[in-house]
Amino acid sequence: MMKTDKMNNISKPATNALLKQAHNNMPLGVADSYRYWGEDNTVFVKSSLGCTITDADDQQFIDFRLAYGPIILGYRDARVDQEVVKAITERGTISGFSTDLDSQVVELIKQMCPNIDKMRFANSGTEAVIGAVRTARGFTGRNKIVVVEGGFHGLYDEMMWKSDVDNWDNTTEEAPKIASFGGGIPEASREHLETVPLNDFAAIDEVFGRVGDDIAAIVIEPILGNCGSIASSQEYMQKLRDICDANGTLLIMDEVKTGFRVAKGGAQELYGIHADLTTYAKAMGNGYPVAAFGGRKDVMDVISFSKKGVTHGGTYTANMIALSAAKATLTILNETDAYDSINKAGADIQQVLSRVFSKHGIEHKFAGPDSMFGIHFGSQVPQNYRDWKQTDSDLYTEFAHNLIKSGVMLEPDSREPWFICESHKDIDLAQLEQLADIAMADAIAARK
User: Fold this and answer.
1) Could you tell me if 99 and 320 are in contact, meaning their C-beta atoms sit under 8 angstroms apart?
2) What is the pLDDT of residues 187-212, one digit of tens each?
3) On the CB side of 382, how many CA atoms lie within 13 Å of its CA?
């Protein structure tokens, strides 16, 4: 683990200068709105390696954000980077035509994921979800999509209608209002979207009873990657599978975060239940921008040039940089003991944190797999997004900010999991425990 003597450079002259320059060039001074943490806390990264990042003022952090999950082996993993460099120097980056890498990567994924018969590539999780949803509508001839509260399915208009749990008064309101996730989203984009709480059987029965003949697909993150890794119960996943089969509806599992992270076969391996269509991104390329969607052969074959066929494409789709990274990353995950190292590191870190929380009398529960676990301050593991509202998320945020000050990088919002990569196997757990102890003591003291 890193030393602490170079941290807390409070003046942060290089960061401040970069942010000032960036404000002249980009809204909020950042290329992605989620990267803006305020004028005092926005981070500019100078370098990254393994499980650490170094900011513009040479402060080093052990990183549990991992760019929201894509890093599964470690930053700048030489095994992956060498294959990318080889592809660039020997093949080029893009041609607008097919290459042998296309099928090589799909065949590798099919070895790991028996839910996949055929695939198409994309450049981001958002694109993969768009492709999967359009394919489901094309195959079924239906319009409506059912999504589960707390899931995140990309930044496109239809999927940016959310249950507003943040502003929900659970003492007076029966259910959270559905609100657009920001401006510029037309009301018409909500027309075919239905929203249900996770693990709620009655809500699923109600929506199918009301509009079941027009439901093309249910879209679900089996483990909510943007809600503290709250997980579907085994019974709920079986319920979804059964009701989709009975109704001619497709089950789309969004494994953009869980795919190739929680197991070789993703969450579907853990549940033993397969989707009709699945979306992947993030961990499949260890940080290189690559995504995909795929599933049943008969469903995917609706993508065609026929009059009623679904159109899919993209200039940068299946470029050689992305596919060479995916091939290298997936080969390592498939053929080495990387998952054992990742899961052990995650379990060990949870033990460290649990000791700290217990020492300070903080009730706590962990949720999700060891490779992307959530922390919930409360007496019970939340069963859905509405339950998350009952956790002490304010204490978590204070604790997280204190950890960041001491050189441990994580998302201050408890809805974002702790992501673990293979490189975390080498961190100093004793030092992490010491830093977490101080961070929690200071968080509790700030409340008095």
Assistant:
1) yes
2) 999 999 999 999 999 999 999 999 99
3) 27
